[in-house]
Amino acid sequence: xxxxxxxxxxxxxxxxxxxxxxxxxxxxxxxxxxxxxxxxxxxxxxxxxxxxxxxxxxxxxxxxxxxxxxxxxxxxxxxxxxxxxxxxxxxxxxxxxxxxxxxxxxxxxxxxxxxxxxxxxxxxxxxxxxxxxxxxxxxxxxxxxxxxxxxxxxxx
Length: 156
What we know:
Blueprint: E1 2-3, E2 10-11, H1 13-23, H2 29-32, H3 37-48, E3 54-58, E4 63-68, E5 73-78, H4 81-84, H5 86-101, E6 106-110, H6 111-116, H7 118-155
Parallel strand pairs: 5-6
Antiparallel strand pairs: 1-2, 3-4, 4-5
């Protein structure tokens, strides 16, 4: 038996096929309905640009709006409650903390950015992905250089 990745409830073969094709995630009908219009728009546009994206991925601590697994990046799409609801703001701090602990940075995108200019929003997300990738590559190179210099010290 297969289970929904969001609620862990049983999922039918038809739900699996539909949600895999539509959302790149195994979701029951009830959880598919929890996907907001901005999430769906951003997801579809990212897929148009050949990104592997997963909607509503659960990482043990929270459900992430969108995940880009190839880049180890989370995207949270924020409605007005993220700006004005104090409890929501506190929850967001913890969500980001747990993501950072796994070295998965979170890109926060307000609904309005998606609704007003999805293409500019995608361009900005791509620029951030490039920056994150560059920092990771530079860090990896620095560690490699450091390892080589240590080896030389010990061999002398």
